[in-house]
Amino acid sequence: MKTETESTGYLMGLDVGTTGVNVMLFDFFGNSICGSYREYSSLYPFEYWVEQDVDLVLSNVFLVCREVLLESGVDVGLIRAVCISSHRASFGLLGSDGELLNGRFIIWQDNRGVSELEYIGSKIPSGELYACTGMPLAPTYTLSKLVWYQRNQPDFWSRVRRVVFPADYFLYKFGASELRTEVTNACCSGLIDVHKLDWSDRVLGQFNLSRELFAPFVSPGVLVGGVSKEASQKSGLLEGTPLVSATGDQQCAAIGAGVIDEGRASLTLGTAGLLVVGTRRIELGKSPGLMVPSSGIIGLYELEGIQLGAASCYRWIRDIVALPEKDEAAKRGVSPFVLMEELLKQSKPGARGLIFLPFLSGAGYPIWDATAQGTLAGLRFAHTRADIIRAVMEGVTMESFDMYQGMKKANVEINSLAVTGGATASPIWCQTIADIFGMEIKPLEIQNATLTATAIFAGIGIGIYKDVRDGVEKTVRYANPIQPIKEHTTLFKNSYETYKTIINSLQQNNAFAKLATLHNEQ
Predict the structure, then answer these.
(1) DSSP, res 260
(2) Both ends of the chain: CA-CA distance in Å?
């Protein structure tokens, strides 16, 4: 009889993201067999609030599973395991019946917790909180929003019986034997002692949060159950197909880009932007403002700089400026981003002096300013749609470069930079990254590194790979490296200096806060 590792088959990886869900089937050597994607919208009921309709998301998750099975034509019995990753710091609140109280996830982009930061800091000074959790005191993380519920909706909070994170919830809905909390993903809640990989007793105690609010821990790459009969009917997967835990989406993206050793780095430009550098040592005093969660490889940590808008800004400009491209793309049956790429060729590097501040959801590292607003500076009658779109692309990339500059001040060294995420499907954007960073970058053969990593974890869970390193060595491959163009790098050095000048001026004159006040008054 053949063993599991000797048999043929496929691994299914799911990335349930902020703006859409991706699924991909892989063989055991990391080759993509077939994929599917469905986009969905978030909900914005009030200023700073960002939520997801969980039923809408889950219906799309099941839909992409059915689509990929239909399109691939593979024997469903040959799908050996399924693994799910999702966005971090997002959460849902379960009532006594085990169902979400409001049918929604509160996602990481939600900034309602900004009103609670002063209170949190009065209970645990921000430096001490960071030294314990590795998460800055910011409204992005779960802690601030749980405190918001306690202090602003006490009656609602009294009905809460469990706090659940998206990937854990989706695994449970697929048929996991019990609800579990994947520990490395939970690092981004702001509730975990990153040194111990356990709930911080001090944080829980200061804010009256009991351990019973959270499901038992599980590590990434662990078999947690099999697809249920109900999920089988909805997804098309065979009942009993093994379900395996993953790490958070951005930790997955780093692993899928080969960040398995100290000094290796990845830049992911998806809904959020993450510059991730692997490290074996936690020296939080040298890295203020950086997120420092555990990697999906226990024992390796990640120094993460986060930008809160990233490719979401490009999607936004698509929807308000590239409407002709959207219409034409629908007629041709292609992505509008393909036609936007052609439009970009009508503009030159530097976007003819336009500078875009990509703070459509506030500013992350190294600024950490929830009141920061998106800004387009230098606009003149001569500018075109192509210039504006290019300025957005370049502004997002300059924010990524600004994170790197902040890391360098903390003595963080990058030995190798891989790039991943939806933005890397654009050759112009890849060249822009190389030019602004002034270094060689390594795109991946499979651009969605998160899915590659979920497949690796699926394989670990059923014994196909010994561990993460084994999975990466067998499945992760790079495309041709991209070299910076010297003249462009010089040009962007000046653009970056102007970018920083604009930010400093707006902050020093309290303009961001004043703009935020105007928003609140509308």
Answers:
(1) -
(2) 69
Cα dist from 518 to 373, 379, 513, 522, whole Å? 11, 22, 9, 7
Contacts of 157 by beta carbon, 8 Å cutoff, 6+ apart: 149, 150
Nearest to 437 by CA among 267, 256, 254, 262: 267
Tell me how crowded residue 470 is: count the other CB atoms within 10 A of its CB.
Answer: 14
Q: Which position has the token pair 């993953």? A: 246
Written as one letter, the residue type at 398 is M
Pairing of strands 198-199, 192-193: antiparallel
Query: Is the separation of the CB atoms in 132 and 202 below 8 Å?
Result: yes
- Number of Cβ within 10 Å of residue 252's Cβ equals 33
Mean pLDDT by runs of 10 across the 522 residues of the chain is 58 95 97 96 92 97 98 96 97 96 94 96 96 94 98 98 98 97 98 98 98 97 98 98 97 95 90 89 83 95 91 93 95 94 96 96 89 95 97 97 88 86 89 96 91 98 97 95 96 97 94 84 68
* Tokens coding 128: 């001490």
If one counts every other C-beta atom within 10 angstroms of the C-beta of residue 298, the result is 15
